[in-house]
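## retry 2 of 3
previous attempt timed out at serialization; input unchanged, resubmitting
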Amino acid sequence: MATNKVEFDREGYFISIVYYGPISLDDVEAVREEALRLSKKHFCFKLLTDFREASFDLSTTDIMDLPDSTAKVYSEHGMSAGQVKRALVVGKKSLSLSFLETVSLNRGQLVKIFKDINQAKSWLLMDHRMQPAKTESIGKDKDLQKYK
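## retry succeeded, writing output
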């Protein structure tokens, strides 16, 4: 069983998750619940997960099922996993999680894998909000808009 730390980072305004040791599916589920609780409490939807000191006791199937189980848990709490931005930091000894990133993105979740924690933080804290589209009126009806 992994040792882990889940806390709200007030300075960076994100949820920080750090795993140490072997990670089981039970660990992932417990940490996910705590991160969800903190996200709701602080209205914070940016998560930084540090796996650099961890190893995985999960099968490839378990890892590939994580995006769907994450979506289900968030949905049960009236939220969408797609509204959460997650940066995952892996170490040299960590299992490559690039397939987790791909599956997550295919499920509409914003997840990115990093080897450098500072790059992960920079990406996580970058503003990804959509900018409003420029519009122009069509004809005489001001309510109709044409997007450029």
